[in-house]
Amino acid sequence: MITRRKFLHNSGLATTALLMNQLPAFGQAPAVKALTLDPNALVKFVDPLPIPPTMQPNEHRASPANPAVRVPYYKLGMRPFEMKVHRDLKATRMWGFGSQTPGPTFDIRSGQEILVEWANELPDKHFLPIDHNLGGAGKDQPEVRTVVHLHGGKAPPDSDGYPEDWITPGKSVVYHYPNKQYAAMLWYHDHAMGINRLNIYAGLFGVYLIRDSVEDSLNLPSGKYEIPLALSDGSFTPESQLFYPVSDKVNAPWVPEVFGDGILVNGKLFPYFEVASRKYRFRVLNASNGRFYHLSFEKGASFYQIGTDQGLLPAPISLKALMLAPGERVDLVVDFSDHRGEEMILKSEALTIMQFRVAHEKMMDTSSLPATLRPVPKIPESQAVKTRLLSLDEYQNRVAEPVLMLLNGTYWHQPVTEKPVLNTTEIWTLINPTDDSHPIHLHLVRFQILDRRRFDVPLYMSKRELRFTGELVPPDSSEAGWKDTVRAQPGMVTRIIVHFEGYAGRYVWHCHILEHEDNEMMRPYEVVAEAALEAPGGTAFAAG
Ligand code: C2O
Ligand code: CU
Ligand code: CU
Predict the structure, then answer these.
(1) N or C end: fewer C-beta atoms under 10 angstroms in the chain?
(2) Could you tell me the strand order of the sheet in which 343-348 lies?
(3) Could you report the per-residue pLDDT of 34-55, keeping only the tens digit for each?
């Protein structure tokens, strides 16, 4: 099915419209001159895949939970820097954690609490186009604001990176991560109100791995055979600078979706990676603003998926292609021993991503791919104490351009409506009458996908009446594990089941298409402590 978005994107219409409106008014419009360079004209596979360094603690400090315990203390600055995204391009100005993008990788044991000082060392002026009409990004606000969220982390509310808890250049804040959760690939990224899409596009994200003894016992490929692949995308000017598209409205530059012309893997366009003929484990992250990847090898080689957003699957599944929406992660094992001497290209539909060069020599491989990994017991529906019907809404102007997205018809600043009680289970029913798939993410928690089902969209739009027109569709096997981000598919109702545990307090849920998130497709939610129910007004804080 071709959606409006795909059509615009594939046809290049969006870009053409943009070009026409961006041209300076020299009386006569000059011949259309490219504002962005075509990455496909670059020589492919000339840069080795960069692997971000592992973050090391600076010192040890007293734990906020128990001052007698000293815990690792890390300091990480967000800074401007320049980096070559391709051998034949000039250096690109970016913003990154520790002067690189992706930032350094955290590699932490489950249950090992840590402190991280996030320091905003950026300049006072933004280099990407701020839209001051968006909530929280008004002209009265500082241009450069950052707040770090650990996506997938079960963190206390004051360390979760609430979008309004931003800091300005020169300031820093210390967050506390207890890491009491399963081995999984999390990621950290900016979450500042109204400009988060620009900050992440500028490069402000990195990988955060949690490990535990269950994972250890599996003997999966590790060390130099375990590689993070952070996918993001970017468009570049002929001067090799990041280009973020704007609308044709001078004072309202926000655009509903952004797809870069090039795909960056760990910050490089079309990198190559030399691999031994053995098993590798790839931790793949979609850090793109709006692009959904449909990953496969050019010649159709199969690979194994062993994990989802929040950790290991019950058993490996063999795949030839895989969907990955913004915010989602996937844990893969590829056995290159079947491909000695080959050059394998990883792609997303027609887009080339990177190349693997498999060594010719045979290699001894002592790692395993066990037939069973970690049980994922199904949360019974009967455990849910509440079901919430939540709509995903898109509002268009007269010429059918999306201008606003809301969750359940409410703006960010309206009173909190989702208040689950700590240690209870709820079903969230996401009703999506729009033409787009929206990857919906909840902070703090992990959840399971129950099912999806088609419904009568016109009836819903006219009368807000829900009538199903299709059968229940169970989640794909590749998403039948612990998740924190779910694709709410167009024209479908998607149901998730969530146990709210960990901490009481204020968190957020939102669409992970960053342009949507920045334009009201984000809402606060509040986990209410059981005790707080009896004593309203008391401070709601409970450690889990
Ligand atoms: Cu990955 Cu609220 O974000
Ligand atoms: Cu998150
Ligand atoms: Cu969305």
Answers:
(1) N
(2) 47-48, 271-277, 351-362, 343-348, 293-297, 321-324
(3) 589 999 999 999 999 999 999 9
Which two tokens mark 52?
A: 């971000």
Residue identifier of the C-alpha nearest atom 3 of ligand 1? 151
Decide if 238 contacts 37 (C-beta within 8 A): yes
pLDDT at 293 over 50: yes
Q: Cα separation of 124 and 127, whole Å?
A: 10
Which amino acid type is present at position 98?
A: G
Cβ of 523 closer than 6 Å to ligand 1, yes or no, is no
**What letter represents residue 361's amino acid?**
E
- Closest to 67 in 3D by CA, of 176, 225, 147, 208: 176
- Residue whose C-alpha is closest to residue 498's, from 439, 442, 434, 447: 447
Any ligand 1 atom below 6 A from CB of 327: yes
Residue 318, SS3 per DSSP? strand
pTM of the entire predicted model:
0.92
Q: Is 189 in the pocket of ligand 1 (CB under 6 A)?
A: yes
CB 163 within 8 A of CB 148: no
CA dist list (Å): 535 to 38, 414, 542: 61, 24, 14
